[in-house]
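Hi R.,

Here's the chain you asked about this morning:
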Amino acid sequence: MMALPFLISFIGLAFAWGGHRGWALGSGLLAIATTLALFRLHATDSLALSF
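And the predicted structure, written out as tokens:
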């Protein structure tokens, strides 16, 4: 799941390389939103460690 922001960023770079600036900007914003959402899930999740 943590690979999603990197994948979305790579897709954004491919859009930028192809000349689709709007799609590249949108995927960059989506990558940031995904990073923030995953961080929120990670920060609020309790760890169930059993040693």
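The CA atoms of residues 22 and 41 lie 28 Å apart.

Let me know if you need anything else.
M.
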